[in-house]
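New to this. Please check this protein:
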Amino acid sequence: MDAMDYRGPNRVRVARKPVPTIQHPQDAIVRVTRSCICGSDIHLYHGLVPDTRVGSTFGHEFCGVVEEVGAEVENLKPGDHVIVPFNIACGQCHFCQQGLFGNCHESNPMATAVGGIFGYSHTAGGHQGGQAQYARVPYADVGPVKIPDWMDLDDAVLLTDVVPTGYQAAEMAGIQKGDTVVIFGAGPIGIMAARSAWLFGAGRVIVVDHLDYRLEFVARFGPAEVYNFKEIDDMAVFMKRQTDGLGADVCIDAVGCEATGSALHTLLGIHLKLESGSALALHWAINSVKKGGVVSIVGVYGPTGNMIPVGNIVNKGLTIRANQASVKRHLPRLIEHVREGRIRPRELITHRFELRDISDAYRIFAGRLDNIIKPVLLPNG
């Protein structure tokens, strides 16, 4: 089969690889019909996530048709078209039983924090991803969800990560009716967090980024007030001026380790790798939220340390909520939101690529070229 192949920082290509096979009786083999490139993949592409190995196939956002199932799979059969959550979860461990599917204790032998993730570094288990014509799906009775007949496949593939992660960012924030919510980052996750904030009762939604085309998009899709941080001297002071001197009720970090805007953080975290990427957006969130407020973190950081203003967190009495989205837990509610038209995920898709054009797809998305918001891959045409 054809599959994306990582060759080192800023180098990807299409390679011929063996079609995956059943390795465990709870496996399924899925023929991929839609796959996406995520901002998290760009962290891998740039070499910022430890233990990302040459030869890996990325891709944690995909849906497809079940081709084969293991002997113990009961809920799926060949021919089922399924949403495949990016979390790999056993469904039986202590954490899965709490609905923390992103922290499964069995699916990732490489770490005790995050559970297994398709197509990510070996710190997330080293599972091969869905930017390929076929993918092996472990614990097939737990994660995959059959796509309703009425659902567009473009909506379905975005329910594997983008929509649930943006939704959980708003959920973790504990938004109260009328709250002012500030979101740092106008990529697909930040855009969906803005949309979701209204579903939880926000009274005002503000999004900060530095790319005007993304700000224009989220201003419509959110909708949201938008600000370009290049035009702001001091983020915390600016946000307090926007909120009667108090600060936002909630701040969401939807950027992660490649935040731009600080020469110091870029030098230490991206070029020298002395911290786990640039944590500037997290600094802004901590300093812009009000005393007693909530900071929700869905931006991706590696497992090494960051320079974080812990004293500000303590002295302001902040609540910090963070995690990988537990996709399976959110899917029933999100499918309802899509059916009722409250969320139209496919509107985020701006570009489509065949798998053979994977190098161009990564170059365009990583470079934020051609007003790209969300790219979708069609691995089987």
